[in-house]
From TrEMBL:
Record's keyword annotation contains Metal-binding: yes
Function: Introduces a single-strand break via transesterification at a target site in duplex DNA. Releases the supercoiling and torsional tension of DNA introduced during the DNA replication and transcription by transiently cleaving and rejoining one strand of the DNA duplex. The scissile phosphodiester is attacked by the catalytic tyrosine of the enzyme, resulting in the formation of a DNA-(5'-phosphotyrosyl)-enzyme intermediate and the expulsion of a 3'-OH DNA strand.
Enzyme class: isomerase
Keyword Nucleotide-binding: no
Record EC number: 5.6.2.1
Catalytic function, reaction form: ATP-independent breakage of single-stranded DNA, followed by passage and rejoining
Domain (Toprim): residue spans on this chain: 3-147
Protein name: DNA topoisomerase
Start and end residues of each Topo IA-type catalytic domain: 165-615
Keywords: DNA-binding, Isomerase, Metal-binding, Repeat, Topoisomerase, Zinc, Zinc-finger
Highest taxon of source: Eukaryota
Regions that span the bilayer: none
UniProt source species: Anaeramoeba flamelloides
Amino acid sequence: MLRILNVAEKPSVASQIAQTLSRNKPQHRRGKSKYNPIWEFDHYFNNQKCRMVVTSVSGHLMKLDFPQQYQSWNMIDPLELFEAPVERFVDEKSSEIAKTIEIEAKKARCVVLWLDCDREGENISFEVLEHCQKFNNRIQYKRAIFNALTRQDLTRAWERLGIPNELESISVDVRRELDLRTGAVFTRFQSKLLQNMFLGFGEKQVISYGSCQFPTLGFVVDRYNRRKNFVQEKYYFIDVSIKNQTQPQDEDEDQDQKSNYQRNSYNKGRNNNNKKLIKFDWQRRRLFDKFCVAVLYEMCVKNPQATVLSIFKKPEKKYRPYPLNTVELQRRCSKRLRLNATMIMNIAESLYQKGYISYPRTETNSFPKTINVKNLISVQQNDQRFSNYVNKLLNGNKFCPPKHGRFSDNSHPPIYPVKPGNNLQGNDLRVYEFIARHFLACCSQDAIGDSTVVTIGISGEKFTLKGLIIREYNFLEIYKYERWSDITIPNFHEGQTFIPESILFQESETQPPNLLTEPELIKLMDKEGIGTDATIADHISKVQYRKYVVKERNLYFKPTDLGLALVESYDSLGFQFSKPNLRANLEFDLKLIISGQKNKNDVLQNNIKLYKDAFLKTINNQNKFITKLRLYFQINPNPPIQNNKQFLQIMTCPKCGPQTKVLLRTTKNGKTYCGCRNYPNCKFSIWPKENVFSEIKVTQVICQSCLRNKIKSFKCDCSFKNIPMISHLEPFPYRACIYCDPEIAEFVSINMGATNTNNSNSQNRTFN
DNA sequence: GCAAGGTC
C-alpha cells in the first residue's frame, strides 16, 4: 500500500493531525525518541488508499556550526570565522528523532511536511526533507499548509497539499549563518580580551555577543543613562481644591472670604484633614516659568470666585483584554505576579504538558471561528472561584464574543485553560489562575461607567475635575489584575459660582524615569523585534546570566559595570551593537529575500562585510576599546598570553596549499610556535628552540633553493611564496628561508606531521 | 566555552 510519512514540528501537533484525519482511530507506537511517538492509520490520498505514518520532530532537526578545526578559541583567529566554512548536520540532541525519520522515510513513497506555517517551520521542512532524501532519494514530498489545528483546517490542508517555500527557508539560513558567525567572532574576541587583559575575569567566563543579547542589554543601559543624566527641573502650578462632600456655596454666601485671598494663599480648610479635599487640575497642567505662574496665581487669588463653565457627561468604558498570546502572558504575569519571564514560560510549559492550558507559545490574539469559546468557558463551571461568574456568562446575558486581535502565527490559537486547575499550588496555581481569569475576562463585556468632567474658571484660568461612577464592572469582576475606581465628586450646575476651599501656589520638580522593569523590557523587545515570543524570556535571562544586567528589588533592571563597559566600548567606535537597528535591518533584508527582491548571497555578503569591517575596526582601534574598558576594570599586570600576536598568519601551509595559513600560536604552557590552521587534520608546525617568533614577518620572496632540493622531496609543493624572516638575527632584518637556511635551522625545528607520501623519513624531520 | 531559533 502507498505509504506516506507525515512530519509535524512537535508531538502535540502530530497527535492532533493523526486524531483528526483518522477520525480518532490512529494506532500508536513508540519511535526511537520516547518523546516523539508515531501514529498510524489508513487514509485516502487522491482517492487511493494509503497508510499514513505521522510523527514529529522537536523544533529544528539540524544544527549549524563550524567544522571541528575551527572550534578552538586559542588556535583560530576570530577574523577567520567570517569566511570559515559552516556545516549543517543533525543535532546530537535530535539523533533519535532523526533515526525514526530515517527508518520511516526508507519505507515511504512520500513525505508530507506538516511543520508550523512560519519561517522557521519552512526551514525545518527542508531539514526534514533533506534528511529523508539522504536515505530515500526517490521520496516525493508535499507541504501541508494550515492556519489552525482544527478539523476543517487540517482536512483542507490534506486536500490541497502544496510545496515548501524555499525563499522563506533560505531567509532563515541567512539569519542562522549570520548569527553564528557574528556571535562566535565577537564572543571569542571579547572573552579573550577581557580574560587576558583585565583582572576579575575567570578563564572560563564567557562574555558573549549576540544580535539579540546586545540590544536587550542596550535597552537596560539606555534607561539607566536617561535616569542618570536626568536634570531635574522645577515647575510651578496652581492648585485649586474644594471640600469633599460639600455642596458648592453660592457666590454671595461669604463675601469676607475674598479679602482673605488677596493677602496670601488662603486655605479655609487648613485645619481640616487634606484628604477631605478634592483637587481640580489646572488646564495648563504646569509651567516652568515661576514668574508667569505667580502672576496668574495672583490674579486668581485677587478674584477667587469660581464659575462652572461646563459640565460634560459621557459614558466611559474600560476595555476588556484581547485573547492572550505569549508576549502578553509574559508581560502581564511579570507585572502582576512579579514572576520573571523565564519562570512564567517554564510554568506555562509545564501546565501545557499536564494538560491544564493550551499551547503557550503563540502570537495569535484572536480565536478562530472553529473554536467554540462557550465550551471552553464551561470548563470552569466546577471551579468554586469562577462558577458564579461562569454562570453569568453562560446563562445570563453577560457573555460577549472575544475581540479579534491583529496578530496571528497561523497555527496556534490564543492561550486558554483546558481543564480546571483545582489541584494546582503555588506559582503554578497563580499562573493558571491568571490564564483562566484572563480568558473569562476576554469573553466578558467591557466595564461601563459614567464620567463627568466639570470645568471651572477663576480669573480667566481654567480648572477641571473628573468624576466617575462605575455602572457595570463586567470583566473587572473576574479580572482582579486591573483596577477601575469610582471617583465621587459633588453635583454642580452650569453657571454656578462658588469660592474654592483653597487656591495654592505650588512648586515641584520633574522626576527622572525609573529603571526598566521586566514588563517594560518585554514590551520594548516585542516592539523593536528583538527575539520572538518564545525567545524574549531567554534573552532576558541570558543578559543576567552573563552578568551584564542585574535585577534589583526583584523589579528593576540595572546594567553592571561589565554591561556598561561593553556598550560604551562599541559605542566609542561608532557601532550600534546595543541598538535594535542592526537586527531590524536584517529582518528587513530577510523579508526582501522572501519576496524575491534580494538574493541570499547578497544579503549574506553585505552583512558579513558590515560586521567584518566593524571587527577589523575594533581590532585596529583596540586602544580606544581598551580605554573604555579601563574605566571599569583594572589591567592585569601579568597577562597570560600576548593576545594581539595570537593569530598572526606566518605563511601558507606547505602541506595544505595556498588556501591554508600557518598561524603563530601559543601552547597551554605559553610556548610560541607556528601551526597549520587545519590542525588536527594537518600537523605541520614550526617550533622555535628559543622564543624567536615574536617578530616574524611574511615576505613574498620565493626560495629558489628549496625549489630544487629538500622540500620538494617531502611533497611540500614549495611554490609557496612566503618566507618568514626572523628579526633578532643579525643583520636585522635577517631574511632567509625557514626551510633551508642553516642559521635559522639552529633556532627552529619543523614538524611536517604525517604526510601522504610513502617516505617515512619525512615524518617529524628537523632541520639539524 | 560562542548565536538565535525551534522544542521536551
